[in-house]
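#struct-queue
[09:14] JT: dropping the first one here, sequence first, then the C-alpha cells:
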Amino acid sequence: MSRKALYLLLASLLSAAPVCAHETVALPRPGVSDQIPTALVRAPARSLEGVENQEVQFAWRLDATQPLTQAQPYRSESLESWELVSAEVLARGHRLRITVPGAIVRLSPADAARAPIDPLSVLVVKDGRSYANGSGMSSVLGADEVASGVAPFPDGSSAFRLASNLGVGEFELRAETSGATLVHVYEPGSDVRLGLSAERMSYLSGETLRLDVDLQNAGRAMTASSWTANVLAPDGRRWPLSITRAADGGYEAQWTVAEAASTPGLFEVEVQARADLDRSSLLRNAKTSFAVALPTARFAGGIRNMPVRMVGPVYLFEVDVEVATRSRYQLEGSLYGTDPKSGRMVPVATAQTAAVLETGTTPVTLLFGPDVLEGANVMAPWELRDLRLMDQPSLSVIERRELAYVIAGEIVLPPPDR
C-alpha cells in the first residue's frame, strides 16, 4: 500500500472508528538550544507561483544504531588571506607576509570582463632580489587552464605557487594591470590561522548573532593590530561589525538581526585580521554563514497524540500552527522509542508534512504508520523530538523544539461499537 493510500485509509478510519481523542497538551518548556519566535511578523504577500500547493506527507525509517546528532555551526579555520589591490599599488609592489614555503597565490581581476593576468608577467621580489618570468614560482596556472576546469577558481583567475627555496618572510608582487585585482593567498601547513564561527546555525529577526573569533600562531593567541568585519545579506546589503576582546582572551562580535528582517535566507560574515609578525604585517581572512528566518508562523503551543485503530502500529501527532503570513510551511519531527535491551531511547523514524497554510491557527499532522514502525523492535516510552517548523520558499527554520511530546505507555484503543 502506498503512503498516500495509507493516509486516505487513515482519514476514513479517523472519521468512522470510535477512538479516544487525546486532549491537547502544551509543548514542553523550551530547552536551551530551542529556537522560539517571541512575536510574529506579517510579511508582504508572497507569490507561491511554481510552489507545490498540495499537502504532501511522508516518513522514513531511521537506523536505531545511529543516534541523531544536532548539526553544529560551521567553524572556519582559515589559512588564507585575500585583499583587493589597486592597479597603482600592484604596479609599485604589493607586500605579502608568507609564513610557510610554497604558498599559493591567486590573482582575480575585480572586473570579470578585464583581461586576466599572465602569471609569468608577475615579478616576485624577495630580500631585494627580483625573480621574473616565473623564476620565483614552482608552478603556474593560466586563465585558460582555470577555464577548462582544472581548478575551482573564478573565471579569469590565474595562479602560481611560490618557489619553496625562497622560504618565508616578506615578499613583494609587481604586475601591470588596468584595474583592481583580488590577491588571494593560501598557506597550507601554516601555524597562523583565523578561526570564526557563529553561536548558532540559524537566527530569527530580532535575535542577536554572536560570533567567536580566534587568531592563533602555533596554538597561541595572537593580538590583531586591526580588524575589518562585515555581515552580507542575500540581497547584497552589508553591515559593519565591531570585533572586541572576549572574557577568555579571544575575540568576539555581536550583531542584532533586526536590521535584516525583510530579507530571510543565508547570510555571510567576512572577517579580516591584520597582525604584526617579525615586524611585518600579516593578513588572515575568514568567512562563515548563518540562516535568518522571518517569524511568519510558530507553534501555537498545543499538540495532540491521536489514537488510531488500524492494522499495524500508527502514531498520529497533531500540532497547532499559528500563521501570520500565508506561505508553504513544512513540519518535521523524529520519533524515538525505548530499546528493550538497553532501556535507552533510540531513533525510529522521521516524518514530514508540507502544506500551504493560510493566516490563523491550523492543525498540522505528522504520521508515523506501519511502513516505518513495523519491525522497529522498540517499546514505550516514546518521544517526539526535534520538532521543526520551516518556511519552504526561503528554506529557513522558524521554530525548533528539541523535545515536543512524551508517550509514557502504549496507546490503548476502546473496543469497537457492536
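[09:21] JT: and here's the second one, same format:
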Amino acid sequence: MTQLSMKKGVNKTPKSTVNKGLLIFLLLFFICSALILIPSINHNVATSLSAINAESSTVHQVSRQTSTIFDTLKYERSIDVLAMLLVGFGFLMVFIRNHGYTSLTATFLVVSIAIPLYVIIKSFGGEGFTMSPISIDTLLFAEFAAASLLIAIGAPLGRLKMDQYIIMGLLFVPAYIFNEWLILDSGLFNGFLDTGGSIVIHAFGAYFGLGVVANTLSRFKDDADCESNHGSNMLCLLGSMILWLFWPSFTSAIVAPERVVLTAINTIFALCGATLATYIFSKIIRGKLEIEDIANAALAGGVAIGSTCDMTTPGYAMLIGIAAGALSVIGYSIIGPKLQKLIKGTDTCGINNLHGMPGILGGVVAIFITGQAGTQLLGIVVTVCVAFICGKITGTVISLLGKKEILYSDEDEFFIEG
C-alpha cells in the first residue's frame, strides 16, 4: 500500500521536531505501569482474583447472582460513560477548524492514560484509600478521573504539542486522586455532598485547566487565533448531543440501585432546563443564537445537578438546570473575556463557563439538602485551590517541553490530506 505521505494531495508541511528520548521514556513508563498490575507483583490484584474465584464456588448463589446483576448494570453504564469520554468529549472539542485530528487523538491519549493510572495508584495504600483493581466501581471512578482530565485539557486545547497532553495527564491523575481522597474519604469533610461530581470532577478539572493556562497569554500573543467553521461546529454539536444523551448514566453510575431511576430523571430534567435557558438567554444577551452557547451551555444542567442528583426531585432539578444554563451563557458572553484578562490566559473551550461555575453552583445548592454550609463551602474552596495550584505547577512543567509550532492546527504533527 502506498504510504500516506506519498499520496496525491497530501500536504507536505515540514514535520515538527520529534523528542524521541521523551517518547521512549513514556513507552517504558507505560510498560512498567502495566507490569504493576500483574498479580505476582501487586498483592491487591492477586487478592481480587482470589475473591472472584472464591465467589464462583460459593454456595450463596442468590447473593452472588444479585451482586452479579448489579455489577452488570453498572458495567452497561460504564460503557455509556466511555462513549461520553471518547465520542462526546472528543467531538465536542472538534469545534476548532483544522484541529480535528489533534483534538480526537488527544482525547484517545488522555483517556488511555487516566484510566490505567488511576487504577494503578488506587491499588496501593492503606484502608480508606485502596480500591480493588478488578472492580466495576474502580473502573467507574477511573472513568470519572478521565472525564475530569478531558475537562482540564479543554483550557489549553490547540496550544499544546501531543507530548504535552500526555505529560499533563500523568501529572493530573495523582492530583485528582489526592483531592478526591481529601474531600470524600479523609474524614475531614464529613457530610460533604457531591454524588455526581459537580465539585470533585467538574470544578476540579476546570480550575486545574485554568491553572495550566494562567499567565501564558504573552507566550501566544503573536500566534494564530482559534477559529471554527460550519463543519467543525456541526461535529461539535454532535459531541454535545452524545454527552446530553448519556449524561444520566454518568450521574447514576455509582448511586444506590433504588435511586438510579430518580437520578436519571433528575438529570434529564436538569439538562432540559439548561437547554431551554440557553436558548432564552443567548437570544436575550446576543440578539441571535450563538452556536457556542447551544453546544456547551445546554450541558450545564448535567454539571450542576451532579452534587444532588440522587437527593432532589425533578422540579428542583429543572430549576437547577435553568440556573446553570443561564449562568453558563453569561459566562460565555460576558464573564469569559474578563476572566481571560484576570488570569492572563486563554480558556479555549470555555471550561470555566461549562464546568467551573455550574459545578460550583451545584455544590452550593447541596447546602439546602445537607444543611452543612461550612463543610460544603470549605470543600468547594479547597477543591478549587488544590486544582488551580496543581494546574499551575503542571503548566510550568509542560512549558519546559517547548511550544506548539502551529497553533490550532493539525499540520505540525499530522499528515494532512488535500
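[09:30] RK: nice, looked through the second one.
[09:31] RK: The first helix runs from residue 20 to 36.
[09:31] JT: good to know. DSSP finds 15 helices and no strands in the chain.
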